[in-house]
Amino acid sequence: MTRLALPASVPGRVMLGVRFACGAASWFAPKSTMRLLGMEPDRAPETIYVGRLFGTRDAVLGAGLLAARGEARRRWWLLGIACDVSDALAGIVGARRNQLPKNAAVRTLLISAGVVGAGLGAWALAAEDL
Q1: Among positive and negative, which fits the CA dihedral 9, 62, 122, 110?
Q2: Considering the entire predicted model, what is its pTM?
Q3: Half-sphere exposure of residue 83: CA atoms within 13 angstroms, side-chain side
Q4: How far apart are CA 39 and CA 125, in angstroms?
Q5: What H or E segment, with its residue span, contains residue 68?
């Protein structure tokens, strides 16, 4: 049985916490989470479903980090960064095509690409948090 191992670096631990917090919030309080991201779940109830999908994905990325070590953990960091960069790009495309409110695009871009997602993941990877 594989023993769970917390990331050693500060950015790694913060990222792990963010993965689980976002996962839980998106799953158990999707309306509130979508509102925080600048979306309107009362006008577009399908965002609730998509929010839960996002929550599941973030929780799985967190679980992968906890369960892996060494080269396998490096792959989980890279997978998380890829997901976060993809989220940022999807926000940009959605905003340019008027499929996403501008404030939601800015919030998701900051969260996924810079302040939290890809930024913390890359920092933890650079710190050799394996």
Answers
A1: negative
A2: 0.88
A3: 21
A4: 31
A5: none
* Residue 17 near residue 9 (C-beta atoms within 8 A): no
What CA–CA distance (Å, rounded) separates 115 from 120? 7
Question: In Å, how far are 36, 83, 118 from 121, measured between CA atoms?
Answer: 22, 11, 5
CA-based radius of gyration for the chain: 15
**CA–CA dist 45, 15 (Å, integer):** 29
In the block, which residue shows the tokens 């997978």? 79
Q: Mind listing the pLDDT tens digit for each residue in 82-127?
A: 998 888 888 889 889 998 888 888 888 888 765 667 888 888 988 8
For helices 10-28 and 46-67, the axis angle rounded to 10 degrees is 150
Query: What span, in angstroms and rounded, lies between the C-alpha atoms of 39 and 71?
Result: 37
